Amino acid sequence: MTGRIVGIGSYLPERIVTNDDLAKIVETSDEWIQERTGIKSRHVSDPLVEKPSMMAGEAAKRALADAGIDGSEIDLIVVSCTTPDLLFPSMACCVQKAVGAEGCGCFDVNSACPGWLAAFNTAQSFIESGNCKKALVVGAECLTNFVDWTDRGSCILFGDGAGAVVLSADETMPKNKFIMHATSVKADCLYCESRMQPKRWEEEGFLDNTYFRMAGRDVFRFAVTEVPKVINELSEKYEFSLDEVDYYILHQANARIIETIAKRLGQDLEKFPMTLFETGNTSTASIPTLLDTMKKDGRLKKGQKIVMSSFGAGLTWAANYFEI
Ligand code: ACO
């Protein structure tokens, strides 16, 4: 048995912030941001209402509605979130409450942006080992709470949101195939220190050190090198050809990164759908929200072959090959 995606849902905050809006608070322009990243606007959460737990719960409810499944049928919830509004209980427990999945197994995973792929692989492994039949896999992120809004090099990139899928055990599905990697060698090019260190609040500049920190060029180079490599590794290991893949669903960080990866793989850019123009980089939520967009606009169809791949802090990167 392997899990088939039988429902998809997402939640994006109501407030939309355009590049022109950002140009009022940092020295930048719509032209610069679009040229370097492709991003035109992003959804920014209301911090008191649209918390990661709330967005995760909403996305999960919508995925269940799409699947036509009641929350009580779910026997596992795995959430990926690096910016939880609660240290504990887990975001998965919050989702359980939101969807009424009383009694099921719940836990979170943290693998930065590829975290949703880690959550997906974990849930699939539970299904494949016979430990569960119906799982909710959710990615939720509120990076705008951790962005330094005076740093034009990073604040222009991010948006908030959540996405979820329902997996249902299906004996006709081929096995979920994946590869996950990490290296600590370049950990300092992408990190965010925890704010939960009360004694350190007295240190001058402590809050500044808890903002998202990124060496953009290093991350760019890492992504365009490692993502094509891991996708090629996946195709060799599991013996499929890149040409037979219908869609490459990549982490929505930057259109230039995706264009470079498409070129390096020798694949048509049409196979690389993008939502980042309107969402910015929503970190771990970017792949499931993209899947939801594609389901709604009719691009996703049963039997299609999909490669998903993501990269992020750690540094971590991963790729999956599966059928819709
Ligand atoms: N507006 C105008 N100018 C800017 C801006 C801005 N928003 N940001 C930087 N600049 C300036 C810099 O100050 C610099 O000026 P200088 O030459 O006078 O010193 C110049 O533009 C070039 O800066 P770079 O940082 O070298 O610009 P680059 O072309 O590398 O683009 C960017 C920056 C868009 C961040 C790019 O490096 C990138 O996309 N990297 C990948 C980042 C990424 O994907 N991170 C997310 C992964 S992790 C996760 O998803 C959570």
Please give a quick description of this structure.
The protein has 324 residues and is α/β, with parallel strands linked by helices.
What does this molecule look like?
With 324 residues, this protein is an alpha/beta fold. It folds into two domains: 2-170, Peroxisomal Thiolase, Chain A, domain 1 (3-Layer(aba) Sandwich); 177-323, Peroxisomal Thiolase, Chain A, domain 1 (3-Layer(aba) Sandwich), CATH 3.40.47. It is 32% helix and 23% strand. The chain has ten helices and 13 strands. Strands 1-7-6-4-5 form a five-stranded mixed β-sheet, with helices on both faces. Helix 3 packs across helix 4 and helix 7 (216-237) packs parallel to helix 8 (255-265). The longest helix is centred in the C-terminal third of the chain and has 22 residues, at 216-237. The protein is globular.
Proper CATH architecture of the largest domain: 3-Layer(aba) Sandwich
Strand content: 15-25%
User: Based on DSSP secondary structure assignment, what is the total number of beta strands?
Assistant: 13
Order of helices and strands: EEHHEHEHEHEEEEHEHEHHHEE
Number of helices: 10
Small molecules bound in the structure, each named once? acetyl coenzyme *A
Topology:
Elements: E1 2-11, E2 16-18, H1 19-22, H2 30-37, E3 41-43, H3 52-67, E4 76-80, H4 91-99, E5 105-109, H5 115-128, E6 134-141, E7 161-170, E8 177-182, E9 190-191, H6 206-209, E10 213-214, H7 216-237, E11 247-250, H8 255-265, H9 276-279, H10 286-296, E12 305-312, E13 316-323
Helix pairs in contact: 3-4, 7-8
The chain binds acetyl coenzyme *A.
